[in-house]
Amino acid sequence: xxxxxxxxxxxxxxxxxxxxxxxxxxxxxxxxxxxxxxxxxxxxxxxxxxxxxxxxxxxxxxxxxxxxxxxxxxxxxxxxxxxxxxxxxxxxxxxxxxxxxxxxxxxxxxxxxxxxxxxxxxxxxxxxxxxxxxxxxxxxxxxxxxxxxxxxxxxxxxxxxxxxxxxxxxxxxxxxxxxxxxxxxxxxxxxxxxxxxxxxxxxxxxxxxxxxxxxxxxxxxxxxxxxxxxxxxxxxxxxxxxxxxxxxxxxxxxxxxxxxxxxxxxxxxxxxxxxxxxxxxxxxxxxxx
Length: 289
Description:
By secondary structure, this protein is an alpha/beta fold. Helix content is 38%, strand content 17%.
């Protein structure tokens, strides 16, 4: 099985490479290897490699910057997906595309199911939704959110840095979702590929949290292993206290029951609580020095 992975240097791209099954031949490219805004180069890459599967782990993820940079966000998050799908029509491969909880508006009274109506609030969300629309019936769409990984640029490492610099920080407490460890997400994606899945799936770690809850857990776990020296005071604040250019969904918890049912025969996929994975990630981060 030959697999082309985009976003090779990203959090998920790296995790996909580290967790790849032994029978997979991996071709991993980053922005330098293939600029997703270069339609001809992207098509040529897929035609020349003729992969059985393309995992699109690349995205324009600068949520606030996208509000003033929509053409580039759309080129990467939507148009490039269309090029991938159309080229795979010619080569015969399958596309596994990673999307986001930001395609929802946050008004649901329950966790979002894969077939729920989308209503994105931001340019980032709209362009990711447009990318989803290019997928074919035989492809796989995996939505996720709040992704983090050791060594990456993410909320966890931002928090540990701030906690080492400040005695007090404020963190938004009225946005609800669930953190997702990229390594666990990668394993779920490989699990779905191994089962020849088709359609839309959701994955985040088990449990529920606000960003404030997540920050408190980070402080406790990081302090326990010596990544931060003192526990700072963490104050819950509201979204209105911390205005941003892009509007975020206030509730973006994903219903992952379909995914977990599909992978039920393998307990390694998708059942751990987010705090368990946070603890594992922080130990990895400490080992990185």
